[in-house]
Amino acid sequence: MSRAPLTDPEHAPVSDSAAGDTERALAHAAEHCEAHGARFTKARRRVLALLLAQQQPLTAYQLLDLLREHQPGAQPPTVYRALDFLMRNELVHRIESTNSYLPCNHQHCGHHPARDAHWPQFLLCDSCGETREVPLDGALRQALTLQARDYGFEVGARPLELHGLCAACRKA
Amino acid sequence: MSRAPLTDPEHAPVSDSAAGDTERALAHAAEHCEAHGARFTKARRRVLALLLAQQQPLTAYQLLDLLREHQPGAQPPTVYRALDFLMRNELVHRIESTNSYLPCNHQHCGHHPARDAHWPQFLLCDSCGETREVPLDGALRQALTLQARDYGFEVGARPLELHGLCAACRKA
DNA sequence: GCCTAATATGTTATAACATATCAATTCATT
DNA sequence: AATGAATTGATATGTTATAACATATTAGGC
């Protein structure tokens, strides 16, 4: 897999609005953890901040490389533990088809008041790598559930990963 | 991941009907390859036979262990090359969420006259591990396509992996 | 039949992704 | 401060997959 170049939020120049978004997302994460009695430690915050600074999902080892710029002794378990914590707390998603991780955008899940319970869906562009998290709409959800029922199967709310072409890449 | 015990088609006793199914599937594969100018070699046949003898998907290294019973020098590339070939020729599928491989059942794809082009779907039981390949029905297919279109996204015909509970495990 | 180009396989090594284990530290609570 | 639970550090290892290069096999033209 070839992947795009990466950004370090504490070293690279970022737009004010992007930095503001990151701050807001970190503040939201801190609140969310507090509310659930989970400890949003420095290590966990740092990993989430690195993910938030990217336009694309990162693999665990890309994240590790970035982390080592601040924390040279970081090892794989450092990253994987932080990712496990963040995933358990619905702050990060894992994309199985690309072994990569990205921040939850909170559009699909319980953190967002207007949405049903967690059932995120990802649109993955096979051309540019864009990975977009969108809510699973009712019609699709129902179609999934019904088709599964034809086979006596009850589907769980695992993220769907839909590969294809994003709007920009379709034009080009 | 814990996995069920495995079967070696050339050593273990199997029912006549299962053996017959395997033979038919191998014959079908041979024809299919012939028709496409692809070489269905001994190595490839052996790997497909091992997969056909299982009730469940296998990982590449489980397959390697089985392969080594006949072919002690087999190495990872032996298995991965055979799997690549079999996947390119639509004879085997890879399940991304479990890093495992299983034979195509030909119910969903061009090999089967009554079906549309390749768009398999898998129902994966998180309790017993059953992995069932079923055709993606029209309603679900349309719902997927339409929802993606809302985001300017064009979905490709990649297999869907739906996790949940099979009928037997729901009862229990 | 023989040559040759293409395809497939053997072999070694390594890349890429992830977890087990145990010791040391930190933290919240008493 | 003492305790127990959660977290982190550190080392090693497990698991999944591919790169790179040598050798063997095969199909097709001569």
Kindly provide the name of the CATH class of the largest domain in chain A: Mainly Alpha
**Which fold does the CATH topology of the largest domain in chain A refer to?**
Arc Repressor Mutant, subunit A
Work out the largest interface and the residue count of each chain: A-B, 35 and 35 residues
- Gyration radius of chain A, rounded: 17 Å
Distance between the termini of chain A: 21 Å
Percent helix of chain A, as a range, is: 40-55%
Give the number of helices of chain A.
6
Overall number of structural domains of chain A: 2
Ranges of chain A with pLDDT <50 over ≥5 residues? none
User: Do you know the CATH architecture of the largest domain in chain A?
Assistant: Orthogonal Bundle
How many strands in all of chain A?
6
The CATH homologous superfamily of the largest domain in chain A corresponds to Winged helix-like DNA-binding domain superfamily/Winged helix DNA-binding domain
Helices and strands in order, then pairings?
The structure is a homodimer of 172-residue chains.
Chain A: H1 16-35, H2 42-52, H3 60-70, H4 76-88, E1 92-95, E2 100-103, E3 120-125, E4 131-135, H5 138-150, E5 154-155, E6 160-165, H6 167-171
Parallel strand pairs in A: 3-6
Antiparallel strand pairs in A: 1-2, 3-4
Helix pairs in contact in A: 1-2, 2-4, 3-4
Chain A binds a DNA duplex (30 and 30 nucleotides) through helix 4.
In short:
2 copies of one chain form a homodimer. Chain A is an alpha+beta fold and 172 residues long.
Report on this model:
2 copies of one chain form a homodimer. Chain A is α+β, with helices and mostly antiparallel strands. Chain A folds into 2 domains: 1-104, Orthogonal Bundle (Arc Repressor Mutant, subunit A), CATH 1.10.10.10; 105-172, Ferric-uptake regulator, C-terminal dimerisarion domain (Dna Ligase, domain 1). Chain A contains 6 helices and 6 strands. In chain A, the strands form 2 sheets. In chain A, strands 4-3-6 form a 3-stranded mixed β-sheet. A two-stranded antiparallel sheet of chain A has the order 1-2. In chain A, strand 3 (120-125) and strand 4 form a beta hairpin. The longest helix of chain A is centred in the N-terminal third of the chain and has 20 residues, at 16-35. The first copy, chain A, starts with 15 loop residues before the first helix and ends with a helix. Strand 6 (160-165) of chain A pairs antiparallel with strand 5 (154-155) of chain B. The structure holds a DNA duplex (30 and 30 nucleotides).
